[in-house]
Design goal:
Two copies of one chain form a homodimer. Helix content of chain A is 30%, strand content 24%. Chain A has 361 residues and is an alpha/beta fold. Chain A has a five-stranded mixed beta barrel with strand order 6-9-7-8-10. In chain A, strand 2, helix 2 and strand 3 form a beta-alpha-beta unit. Chain A starts with a strand and ends in a 5-residue tail after the last helix.
Chain lengths: 361, 361
Amino acid sequence: MQNNHYCVIMAGGIGSRFWPRSRTNKPKQFLDITGTGETLLQQTFNRFKLIVPPENIFIVTNEVYRDLVLEQLKISFEQVILEPERKNTAPCIAYANKIIERRCPDAVIIVSPSDHLITKEHDFVSAIQRGMIFAQQNDALLTLGIAPTRPETGYGYIQASEAISPDKTGQIKKVKTFTEKPNLEMAKIFLESGNFYWNSGIFIWSLSSINAAFESYLPEVFIPFTFLSEPKGINYDSMAIRKAYSECPSISIDYGLMEKAQNVFVIKSAFGWSDLGTWNALYEQSSHDINRNFIRGENAFVYDSKNSIIQMPNDVVLIADGLDEMIVVFSDNGLLICKRNDEQRIKDFLEIVKSKKTSIL
Amino acid sequence: MQNNHYCVIMAGGIGSRFWPRSRTNKPKQFLDITGTGETLLQQTFNRFKLIVPPENIFIVTNEVYRDLVLEQLKISFEQVILEPERKNTAPCIAYANKIIERRCPDAVIIVSPSDHLITKEHDFVSAIQRGMIFAQQNDALLTLGIAPTRPETGYGYIQASEAISPDKTGQIKKVKTFTEKPNLEMAKIFLESGNFYWNSGIFIWSLSSINAAFESYLPEVFIPFTFLSEPKGINYDSMAIRKAYSECPSISIDYGLMEKAQNVFVIKSAFGWSDLGTWNALYEQSSHDINRNFIRGENAFVYDSKNSIIQMPNDVVLIADGLDEMIVVFSDNGLLICKRNDEQRIKDFLEIVKSKKTSIL
């Protein structure tokens, strides 16, 4: 564990696809969605504590989630980087880079989402450590690619080059292309080819490499935060951050930078990863009863039902009959009843509802 | 409105087929299940106020519902007849008869359930008044039959004799048989025949006629309550009532008496009646949206769904998608999700749940 190793956990998402468990005032990363006793943020933080010094782990989140972060993690308030508004991942990373730069100009940084599931911790730690060595030694933007286990249409894919690996282990490859979520036919081709990996959204790079890439490809995101490079004595205030955010476009690091840079690499990994982006993703990761139902809730009584996802609080009595391929979730006076096939529409439904009644969600 | 006209409203049911709206501590008759602003008991009481003096209306209910009755109706506590246990309709009627006998030995009595829906009040009042005149003048046990409008398999039927009506209007006929709930094929034959009526469970008789019938056909129910005929000065206490109930068999007035007596008549009626016995019965009586959904709840948002019954409290946000022929009801931390075709099983499901967890329903 080296002192110049840093980690940035992005925890500003609002997780609307996990409604009604995930709510605007308590999104998915702050929930014990897997039922293990730890929230996803806590799981993520504890995993990175195995790799970098805990005081080098920063959480970037929206101002409104500050107290939730400090409740869930034993960290100093200086480790919580507060965003005044949501502007996707590129501004979030540019901002965190500047904070880290003030402490350690030769940092090697892992950037990670806060709300994913990882089941094989040992393999995860190995992959990250290998990546950090590579990023330390090379001017490289490294992304973690997950060897696909099914023709998933809900993920973006990374295509690795067939050229020889610059890494002795052969696990690190140059990236050829990033692709959007494919249709099923294409996903099957990706799965068979062996050269395509799920894009985990986890990145590793040295501060100098990522700064250089920002300067080349996203100066409009980089420049608003340059005032933070001024000598340490000069304080920045929340108004200055607010101004920087207002000047930034809302853009993802994938689209704005990774797809354009020429020094992008992928580590092939297989550490039991899921983005837990949807109820179906949770279903796939979970154990089922004999009828392939995933049922949570001490007082959930389910009859003649199959292939369904049911999550009830213990103090709600559910009697359900005749469910097939359905999602039924009750939480905090919100009830979702939705076909599993339609779950991509939950986000749209929520938008419609929000446009009618903003106060109730 | 005559002083010897009395009414007995039976309000002791527990309405388990309307779970989760109807609960053991607040059954269906005490709920505004139609959304009109009045509970079914209030609707029933107010309807009979048009026919008999309000002080002559008695409510028979279980001891545990006494306060609910007195909250909902402006009546004296002496008008609430309390049963110590549930023993079906015959003991309930025998007990109420004795209470009325002490005040008015020549009473003519209407007996009615408390939890049915009646939409045509004017026709209802006409039918009851005609029946009371007939019961006053004849030694007759009169039942109200509803002209069927569909081949309903959830109701019992009354077959009227084809003999000439003893009543000048031709609306009152001798009863030939009572039948149990038919299958669909039989129900269609009943509907076509024109001689079969739905058994509404509403009865009209003079005290002398019903007492005579009890003595002949149900002495085991009649005798335990005879102590109540003793001179007015002698008080009865709740222990005596408890003893009488413990001695009575649990038996319905239909099975124990009406099916056996020879002087049973039916008034043919059509006053928009439903026993509201089930969610489907409520659905049939209600207006629907363009997709034939019955939706209640200010924050119930339902997409791509049809032929379904949805009842949510206003403070629960529902997002539902892909429902077809389903019942979805949330009330007081109970959630029912059930195929409409399976609703007869709700009662069974509840029994199973109760056997596991008695405290939660």
